[in-house]
Structures are given as C-alpha cells and as structure tokens.
Amino acid sequence: MARKRYTKEFKQQACRLVIEGSHQASDAARQLGIPVASLLTWLRRSGYREPLCRPLDLRSDDPAILKTQLRDLERRLERAEMERDILKKATAFFASQNP
C-alpha cells in the first residue's frame, strides 16, 4: 500500500485548526480524513505544545461533563502532589549537601 503524501499547505492548514483552538487534534484529524498520529507529528514539528490546563466550563450541569471535569481535576491534583513530593525530596537532598 502506497503512503499518502500531503502538501505543505495542507499540513499547515491542518495544524492551524488545532493551534487556533477551534478543534482538538483528534477532531481535526477525523474531519480531514487523516491519521491522528500524522497530525500530532506535524504539530510537534511546528513547535506546538498542547496547553497543560484547559479552561473549565463551570456553568454546565450535565453529569457527563461534570464527571469529565472531576477526572481532569483529580489527574491535575495527582500530578501537582507528585511534583511537590519531588521538590521536597530535592530540597532535602540539596540541604544535606553542605559544601
């Protein structure tokens, strides 16, 4: 099976959909009919980094949205606690290293 080639302009327009924030990478790839991995590679090569935190829509009362937000917040809390623990250990290590 031959590999499909995309023009530079097509790649730039696909990346622009994600960078401008109008679409997520998976949605944009599905709409354009390309593999998600290809779009993510193009984004990575262009220097794009996904934001660490997305704005939360706190006005919604939909249980599915609230459940998703809760999972996201729990994940962020777990990461913050892990980073805090690493910093505590690093501080203790460097404090014990008297020159």
Output the keywords.
99 residues; mainly alpha; 2 domains; 4 helices; flat
What can you tell me about this protein's structure?
This protein has helices at residues 8-19, 25-32, 36-45, 63-96. The chain has 99 residues and is mainly alpha-helical. The protein has 2 domains: 1-50; 55-99. Helix 2 crosses helix 3 (36-45). The radius of gyration is 20 Å and the shape is flat. The mean pLDDT is 85.
Judged by helices, strands and strand pairing, the structural class is mainly alpha
Instruction: Categorize the overall geometry.
Output: flat
Number of helices: 4
> Could you give the order of the helices and strands?
HHHH
| Total number of strands | 0
Low-confidence runs of at least 5 consecutive residues: none
Structure, briefly:
With 99 residues, the chain is an all-alpha fold. It has helices at 8-19, 25-32, 36-45, 63-96.
Produce the secondary structure layout.
Blueprint: H1 8-19, H2 25-32, H3 36-45, H4 63-96
Helix pairs in contact: 1-2, 2-3
